[in-house]
Amino acid sequence: MPQNSGKNAAPFWISAMPAGLKDFLLEVGDTSRFAGRFFREFLFPPYELREVIRQCFEIGYRSLPLVGLTAFIIGLVLTLQSRPTLVEFGAESWLPAMVGISIIREIGPVIIALICAGKIGSRIGAELGSMKVTEQIDAMEVSGTNPFKYIVVSRIIATTLMIPLLVIIGDAIALYGSFLAVKFKGEVSFTLFFHQVFHSTEFSDFIPAFIKSFFFGFAIGVIGCYKGYNSKKGTEGVGESANSAVVVSSLLIFILDLIAVQITEFFGYI
Amino acid sequence: MEATAQEKTKSGAVREYGEPIIEIAHLQKSFGSNHVLTDFNLSIRRGENVVVLGKSGCGKSVLIKCIVGLLSYDAGSLKVFGKEINQLKQKELDELRARIGFVFQSSALYDSMTVRENLEFPLRRHGKHKSKEEVNRLVEETLENVGLLHAIDLMPVELSGGMRKRIGLARSLILKPEIMLYDEPTTGLDPITAEEISKLMLAMQQKYNTSSIIISHDMHCAQLTANRLAVMIDGINYAQGTFDELKKVTDPKVHAFFLNSH
Questions:
Q1: For position B2, what pLDDT does the model report?
Q2: CA B177 → CA A145, B93, B161, B211, distances in Å?
Q3: Which of A23, A51, B24, B63 is deepest in the core (most CB within 10 A)?
Q4: Any B CB within 8 A of A112 CB
Q5: What ipTM was estimated for this complex?
């Protein structure tokens, strides 16, 4: 009897695929299925509103100090680094506008999303991995709770809602850092600085950046939860989940940013 | 009406058990090429404590995870309260789970919740709408039963191994289940604490009138808690009987479990 009767045999192009590529595609497929399950569970009751609010607090409020400090330093450093070049060309007055557009359009959302991928993604990956290893997820199921809905859906909703909020707050703090840097080097009032920033920016600068930050939040939540929920047994598995949650979600943020730029350009917002 | 079963206790009194509430017949479960349960048979009556003995990794935990529907089985029949587990819808399974308590090997306490919240969780989730006062009363009463009322506001990380086991037991008992499933309840504990936990399990079984399946390879725990033992070898119920009956069995596979017991 032949080893492979042909009915369940993989097509030639799959068999010929290198093992690494096959594993990568399987991982992408599993993650997509996981994200698909999120939408299925998200749409139908019961809704875990209490847990969503708790996660919003844990993810949003507790990330605020780190996001705020990093954003402040970015705004300050970006201004100090850009100033000499603009002074050389006699365009120092363009500094608020240039820094404002850079932060609002690109640097703010991407850097804050990357910081959150590190802080929140690793936290979710490790927490869920640890819950899996210590049978807490099984215990939840035995207690009549859908663990996917209670643990995963609530966290993905929280990251999707909180990252845009953190981006807005982070942008504001970065602009304030930029203002202090300008003020440190020359005479400029708070009103004049922000007038110059908002005079040179339009809604088309805010909206795409705001929309893409929802996708960044969604990506951080899905990857963190997927890695943690599918953690292998043992403490090594938990560490691996946390680590790969950060690496994959950071990479995904860059890929999503690239796609967002193409779409923004297609619609003529650049 | 099902006939009741009788057992003669050590003191000579006759103990009666009720109708069968767990019926396992020709149960099979595999993970890929690893055939864990090959043809497992077991029946447990109301009020009975059965200890399932077996080597580590032989499939004891898989068996109780199948009973509570955490794992689905490949073939055979597994009926709890007369309902075939694999055929239950999610809602029916949740209703059934409210009647079963499960004590996990790792205790599985929720790290992010206090002891009080851990105990409140199953009460809230099984949709038994109770007032706040009633929930508090139940939580305190159950904690008092396991001797840990003073730990009510502690976090799981602040508890010792024995305390975690007790809280895990309390969380499972709070819904007043009819069946208790224990997954290696004394593993990782010192002999004194292990004996305390075994005695507590027995006391709780008498207080709450539960039937139990206890997965263990701790012979002292088995001797203390079991009305009957089942020895799992190669995925089948290789031998069963009371502790004293099995101790006399000369089959080396069964006898090996009793070598160090007194």
A1: 42
A2: 17, 14, 24, 9
A3: B63
A4: no
A5: 0.85
